[in-house]
């Protein structure tokens, strides 16, 4: 996607320096800051601290993190430790475990001296595949958006939740891939962006949409229902952190509420994700581990003070009891369709198997 008109990926690999550069998303939307990651510990911290976010980008970062680790050491014990360290950074997004499993299968059988080079090659392949898959999601999603009726005027009004755009992937986005494809094709489109408390990933969505010139409006999470009720939304598209084999979808907390509001207002609710987000080994969404994050994410509000300096405001007493689940699960019955790089399917076991018939032999 574009930053100041320049096509840019969210991740830059430097194998000759045994490092990668990432956008520190904790500094957005107020500052664009590239961060050098050159050790296993730094890669694990980047994922855990949400300097990188979004299931596909987390997976790609973990893959490169393993390559970086093998530049430090490449013996069997260190390989196992590196995989485990990255594996345990975040529990819900399956792309993380998918990428590490794929990397381990490639490098573990090799002699230690050959592992680092093979890991860099495999991580780059994962990153390039992510870009290609997201572009394909965009093409399939564009066909869908063209067919949607528009409730108010000629502009198509799409709502999204959390950040499932360019910043959540290596490039292109998942839920926003069809939006970018529509905008670039000249289809009039406007995006309702929910703030997505408490980490405010919606602010990142608004930032990247602005960079690419896509019309959008940021809203409080609680405003989504009334906009649907007033006929100002034509469809909702979200990404996913894990999709169970039956079509249940885990995504950022608050997604379930939007799916319920869509059902009540007769609106389509779509989920866009690549193959790496589908967990065919998990029968139902009820078995997805929901990450519980630090309560201080809720107790404190981050932004800029009157001088434009980053600061944090304590909105609750430190001792106030809070719950901070990071994700929720939307049952398949509320999902109108799942969009992947292979096309569109029903949110069901049969629908997913139709798109991926080879999974029976996994």
UniProtKB/TrEMBL annotation:
One of its GO terms (biological process) is L-methionine salvage from methylthioadenosine. Substrate binds at residues 53-55, 90, 201, 251-252. One of its GO terms (molecular function) is S-methyl-5-thioribose-1-phosphate isomerase activity. Keywords: Amino-acid biosynthesis, Isomerase, Methionine biosynthesis. Gene3D superfamilies: translation initiation factor eif-2b, domain 1, Translation initiation factor eif-2b, domain 2. It catalyses: 5-(methylsulfanyl)-alpha-D-ribose 1-phosphate = 5-(methylsulfanyl)-D-ribulose 1-phosphate; 5-deoxy-alpha-D-ribose 1-phosphate = 5-deoxy-D-ribulose 1-phosphate. The active site is at 241 (proton donor). NCBIfam families: eIF-2B_rel, PRK05720.1, salvage_mtnA. Catalyzes the interconversion of methylthioribose-1-phosphate (MTR-1-P) into methylthioribulose-1-phosphate (MTRu-1-P). Also catalyzes the interconversion of 5-deoxyribose 1-phosphate and 5-deoxyribulose 1-phosphate. Part of a bifunctional DHAP-shunt salvage pathway for SAM by-products. This is Methylthioribose-1-phosphate isomerase. It comes from Azonexus fungiphilus. The lineage of its organism: Bacteria, Pseudomonadati, Pseudomonadota, Betaproteobacteria, Rhodocyclales.
